[in-house]
Design a protein that fits this description.
Number of helices: 33
Strand content: 15-25%
Bound molecules: thiamine diphosphate, iron/sulfur cluster
């Protein structure tokens, strides 16, 4: 059968394939890509006089004992079996158990067999990990169970890895590593380099692209290999001939980039610094490594160069050219020619001026770098200790210091297992994102109190919660930092409060949404908000800290019905890793402002689970009382059920406390005040506002009482007040994969609230079509435009009659959005809100996500998206409200403003015309249908 497979695939696989010395004494059994790394290491060891080998399992089931034994060299004495899985509680992992059984059944139980785990959590496994396995097998009594690739200092089962393990890549392979910023073009340029080299030479090429968990503006690391011999090396580059740092802030932040340069290798830094400034900014550890390992350092100012040649902020072409000149993978002249040809091919459609700007950038990059003379005293550079004093709860400070900071520097892989011992079950402290201070925005808003009308729209739309409105009493105003700008609070009058709009320059993502939402600002001239370079607003960081941490919430100003009033609530979602301008986060932030202090969130997998909680970096946070959303992520396919489970679990706990309370009330001799508060709590426990006060009073009385019965109730006091249960997810989850569960949960009649972020595609995985995608929309799996209509999830759920359903678009009608969120939460039954969410995947013209909020407005005005609310608890005749006005035209212009549609006109013009007409027709019919519903419910 394997022969048939081989004939089809052109492979020469057997059930088991052996690689290595025919007379090997130590053999590893493994399957998958780690075999390639093992082969490299086996070649190295055997060339150095050892006798080792590898059995590669090609067909796992059915397992053939006979063929397995036949594949083993007769000389083998010790075997290590590697499983890429973990079966807690088993005697050993599956492959290990098969090998042991096969040997036993073949009468070979005298061999030493050990079992190891590797690659869990997608952990990279370098050659050093493979060396460690063969090294362990040398011992008389090797570890029976072990792990590789991690430092397990709790069970001590991990094998030590030699940091100076030999480089086993094929001789002559040139290895390169590039540190870039998501969206700066580094990854694109490297893909282009690989293509140039692959297309024009006989060289073998390989590229791995490594990302952090931010949706944009995160760190990217490109790992590239080029060579004359086939490249196996399925692991990251850690011993590079050439390392480039494309973002100077990585030097300042102390990213450990230099340690990956081979002795004698090259390190290129893109920065605007002179030599003295560069020397001052380099960490001592990096200096020592450079001096001791004879690293050549080059500096280039690609930032100025790119601007000069008309490439704006796009430094990638200059840097790519510098790479070719320095890394010498190709003769310099050839490389320049190939790059220029490629640029012409890519940009000729956009005009000759752009092609020429690229050519100039290529020429400039080839020579504009300068060699930095490494001072001899760098070899003894001394570490400067600058302790960052972190303020906050002990647990969060610990998490930030020990986990978030190394992870932020892309150094999380070096953390030992003990670093996670306080988070064994994946629970993280809320509020860690406030410590990140990513400083990604180039331009940030500056507020002018004279021009501001205090509408709060800027804070209402900000996806990242980095612009806020604050009201201060006279004492707070007097103690404010000097750089804080203030004015009198206009409405309500005579409060004696001063008003301010504060911005966090280091957290702002520079998305411009606030500026476009501001009625007193415009893009060109600014106004109440003007975008200025981030550095110019540095003093505002202190203002922000003061406003956010020292100024009290003015509860009397809060009004959940208006954008302005709602923004006096502290957002309990801040500084998430979403794309700049993401609409999903703006909605989620508003929900946390209204209910975050008593909220459970079950989050489906999708963008919202990525920006919602990259490990150790929780952007959900707590209020001044330490209360915030309890956020969970379950699976894509069972999130609604998981959310219902949270609610039912909570109800069961509360029912238990109610039974205990009833018993307590009947206990003879308990204080009258305790009895009264217990009775009051029983009455109020299901009412949102009342239950909080009643629970607080009851807790105070229980504490005063101190009896065992009181203590037993107090042990679970967090279950006393009523909570708000939310289920979040994208359209891929709600309309498709999780639909069955979602429908089941809504139909159950339980009081849970669902918020669907409708981006009309599976955004997180790169834009696949979902049933929420629309006619003619180009998406993955719909390359020629989707041919079927968008599903009406809202109407399906409205048909139950007892589910609250709303469609909202905050940029079109903020009040309606607030109303729907409040009504949904207040409704004593299931609720579904579908929020229209412009997304990077839509490729909005002229500035992209800058226009996210305006795009919602346009969508509603032309009838592409409809606003309505169906409230089963409303009186007859008033259950259905159509909040959208009659479509006012401009439908096709709306579609053409987004490349997800407009690109179809270029690729399939006739089909585009047809599908877009159908799309518009369907939208108009939908509006007509909504009018009929309105009439029907009004008549009822
Ligand atoms: C069962 C299952 N299939 C596929 C995936 C991979 N996956 C993760 S997120 C995602 C897309 C989510 O899309 P959507 O629900 O629309 O949310 P968005 O990313 O747009 O916010 C997919 C396909 C998964 N996690 N589980
Ligand atoms: S630019 Fe964007 S991220 Fe920055 S404050 Fe304005 S809305 Fe928020
Ligand atoms: S949107 Fe503009 S006018 Fe309104 S509060 Fe913000 S800065 Fe002031
Ligand atoms: S929903 Fe779109 S804009 Fe938001 S984080 Fe995902 S890809 Fe980015």
């Amino acid at each position: 059968y394997m022969d048939k497979i081989n004939a089809k695939l052109g492979t020469s696989y057997h059930l088991f394939d052996y690689y290595g010395a025919d007379d090997a004494d130590r053999v590893v059994v493994c399957m998958g890509s780690f075999c390639d790394t093992l082969e490299e290491v086996i070649d190295y060891l055997n060339a150095h006089g050892e006798k080792v080998g590898l059995v590669k399992v090609r067909l796992y089931r059915p397992w053939s004992v006979k063929d397995f034994v036949a594949a083993l060299p007769k000389t083998v004495k010790k075997i290590a079996v590697l499983d890429r899985t973990k079966e807690p509680g088993s005697i050993g992992e599956p492959l290990y158990q098969d090998v042991v059984t096969a040997l036993y059944e073949s009468g070979m139980s005298d061999l030493v067999v050990t079992g190891g785990r590797y690659g869990l959590g997608s952990k990279d496994e370098p050659p050093a990990a493979a060396f460690s396995v063969f090294e362990e097998l040398k011992k008389d009594e090797p570890k029976r169970e072990f792990t590789i690739g991690i430092v397990d200092d709790l069970t001590n089962l991990s094998l030590p890895m030699d940091p100076d393990a030999p480089n086993t890549a094929a001789p002559g392979t040139i290895e390169c590593k590039f540190w870039g910023l998501g969206g700066d073009g580094t990854v694109g340029a490297n893909k282009n380099s690989i293509k140039i080299i692959g297309d024009h030479t006989d060289k073998y090429v390989q590229a791995y692209f490594q990302y952090d968990s931010k949706k944009t503006g995160g760190v990217t690391i490109s790992h590239l290999r080029f060579g004359d011999k086939p490249i196996r090396s399925p692991y990251y580059v850690t011993k590079a001939d050439f390392v480039a740092c494309h973002n100077p802030s990585y030097i300042v932040k102390g990213f450990k980039m230099v340690r990956d340069v081979k002795p004698g290798g090259t390190f290129l830094v893109n920065c605007q610094w002179d030599d003295a400034e560069f020397a001052e900014k380099m960490p001592a550890e990096a200096k020592r490594y450079i001096a001791k390992n004879n690293i050549s350092v080059y500096l280039i100012d690609a930032i100025d160069l790119a601007a000069k040649v008309g490439m704006g902020k796009r430094t990638n072409t200059v840097l790519q050219s510098a790479f070719f000149a320095l890394a010498k993978v190709l003769p310099a002249e050839d490389a320049l020619k190939y790059m220029k040809d490629a640029a012409e091919k890519s940009y000729s459609k956009k005009g000759q001026a752009i092609v020429e700007a690229n050519w100039k950038a290529i020429d400039a990059g080839a020579t504009a770098f300068r060699k930095f003379e490494v001072p001899a005293d760098w070899a003894t550079a001394e570490d400067v200790k600058h302790e960052v004093k972190l303020e906050g709860r002990d647990a969060i400070v610990k998490q930030v210091r020990d986990l978030l900071f190394p992870i932020d520097k892309m150094d999380g892989d070096s953390l030992p297992v003990s670093a996670f011992k306080d988070n064994p079950d994946g629970q993280w402290e809320l509020g860690a994102s406030a410590y990140e201070k990513r400083g990604t925005a180039v331009m940030v808003p500056r507020w002018d109190p004279e021009k501001c009308i205090q509408c709060g729209s800027c804070a209402f739309v900000c996806p990242h919660a980095t612009i806020r409105t604050v009201a201060m009493n006279p004492e707070e105003a007097a103690a404010a930092p000097e750089a804080m700008k203030t004015t009198d609070l206009k409405m309500p009058k005579n409060t004696g409060y001063t008003f301010s709009v504060v911005v966090s320059p280091l957290d702002c993502m520079g998305c411009y949404n606030c500026l476009y939402a501001c009625p007193k600002s415009d893009y060109k001239n600014g106004g109440a908000l003007t975008m200025v370079p981030q550095e110019e607003e540095a003093a505002q960081a202190e203002v922000w800290d003061y406003a956010v941490n020292k100024v009290s919430e003015k509860t009397e100003l809060i009004n959940d019905k208006t954008p302005k009033g709602s923004q006096f609530h502290k957002p309990l979602l801040e500084f998430s890793g979403s794309c700049a301008g993401c609409a999903e986060t703006s909605y989620a932030r508003i929900v946390t402002q209204l209910f975050g202090d008593r909220m459970f969130i079950s989050n489906a997998t999708g963008c919202s689970s990525i920006w919602g909680n990259p490990a150790a970096t929780s952007p959900f946070t707590v209020n001044a009382d330490g209360h915030g959303p309890a956020w969970n992520n379950s699976l894509f396919e069972d999130n609604a059920e998981h959310g219902l489970g949270l609610k039912l679990g909570y109800d069961a706990e509360q029912a238990r406390l109610a039974t205990m309370t009833e018993k307590l009330i009947e206990t003879e001799g308990i204080p009258e005040s305790l009895k009264e508060s217990a009775t009051a709590w029983l009455e109020a426990k299901d009412k949102t506002a009342e239950s909080k006060a009643a629970a607080a009073e009851y807790v105070a009385q229980l504490e005063a009482d101190g009896s065992d019965a009181s203590k037993a109730i107090l042990a679970d006091k967090s279950y006393l007040s009523k909570k708000s249960f939310w289920i979040f997810g994208g359209d891929g989850w709600a309309y498709d994969i999780g639909f069955g569960g979602l429908d089941h949960v809504l139909a159950s009649g339980n009081n849970v609230n669902v918020f669907v972020f409708d981006t009309e595609v599976y955004s997180n995985t790169g834009g696949q079509a979902s049933k929420a995608s629309n006619l003619g929309q180009v998406a993955q799996f719909a390359a020629a435009g989707k041919t079927t209509k968008k599903k009406s999830l809202a109407e399906i759920e409205m048909s139950y009659g007892y589910v609250y359903v709303a469609q909202v678009a905050m940029g079109a009608n903020p009040m309606q959005t607030l109303k729907a969120i409040s009504e949904a939460e207040a409704y004593d039954g299931p609720s579904l809100i579908i929020g229209y969410s412009p997304c990077e995947m839509h490729s909005i013209a002229h500035g992209g996500m800058m226009h996210a909020q305006e795009e919602m407005k346009k969508a509603v005005e032309c009838g592409y998206w409809n606003l309505f609310r169906f409230d089963p608890s409303a009186p007859e005749g008033k259950k259905f409200t159509l909040d959208s006005k009659e479509p006012k035209g401009g439908y096709q212009e709306f579609l053409m403003n987004e490349a997800r549609y407009s690109r179809l006109t270029r690729e399939f013009p006739d089909r585009a015309k047809e599908l877009f007409a159908e799309n518009e027709e369907a939208a108009m019919a939908r509006y007509e249908h909504l009018l009929k519903l309105k009439a029907m419910y009004a008549d009822a």
